[in-house]
Amino acid sequence: MWLKAGNAPEVAVEAPGLLFGVSASLYSRVQVFAPCALSSVHIQADLDFARAYLHVDTSPMVRRAFDAADAPFFEAQAADAAIQAVAGQILAVSGPAGHPLFQAAKALELMALVLGHEGPTGCSRRPRSLTPTEQGRIEAAHVLLLERLDTAPDLTAIARRTGLNPSKLNRGFRATYGMTPYAFLQERRLQIAYRMLASERASVGEVALAIGYSPAHFATLFRRRFGLAPSSLVAARSSPL
């Protein structure tokens, strides 16, 4: 997607990404989307409220926005794993089945992550401990890890296919994505499961098998991660607000 707002420079956004904007007045805007499916979370906050109660002035991104004076300001960055996880939770409970208090809490959490997000505009930073070649191999391992969510990953095989040893794969994955490959995969599986349970006509057992867990183990992990039983989302699909 790319966006042109007022006299501000054109901004390109690549998924998974975040787009941060500040404007003190009305402006004209043109947006062009790629011809593919797009899921997004939109959060709008009053700037005076954010400055007074959320202390957003500590964010480098907000300071750059204020340096732009009265002109509309937009900045695109890559969304890291934490930002993607919270956005996924919001999307999972969007619509009539969503709980407003949960959505509001997650919106504040997402704002905190976005405003605390560091890195050069438009891209994520390569950890200093990794060479460009090693970073490319870590990203290739990330793709392989997510190819089959319904089976246990063979990290030794993934490391071998990407030219890394298992120890380097673990260290590089943690440096790049903030968690080990197993933790990252578990988080992604649970986020997908949350969305399936909240929006699709699938049972807890069907969802558990789809992401590679036994129903009992899945229920334990789900409750530990989200603080509620997966069956409660199934019940919420058919319960009126």
**Overall radius of gyration:** 20 Å
CA-CA gap between termini: 35 Å
Which quaternary structure do these chains form? Answer: single chain
**Total number of domains:** 3
Strand order of the largest sheet: 2-1-4
Uncertain segments of ≥5 residues (pLDDT<50)?
Answer: 118-125
Largest sheet properties: 3 strands, antiparallel
* Helical content (DSSP H or I, runs of 4+): 40-55%
Structural class: mainly alpha
Order of helices and strands: EEEEHHEHHHHHHHHH
Question: How many individual helices?
Answer: 11
Binned strand content: 5-15%
Form type: globular
Mean pLDDT: 77
The number of strands is 5
What does this protein structure show overall?
With 241 residues, the chain is mostly helical. It folds into three domains: 114 residues, no CATH class; 47 residues, no CATH class; 55 residues, Arc Repressor Mutant, subunit A (Orthogonal Bundle), CATH 1.10.10. Helix content is 51%, strand content 9%. Helix 3 runs antiparallel to helix 4, helix 3 runs parallel beside helix 8 and helix 5 crosses helix 7. The longest helix is centred in the last third of the chain and has 19 residues. The radius of gyration is 20 Å and the shape is globular. It starts with a strand and ends with a helix.
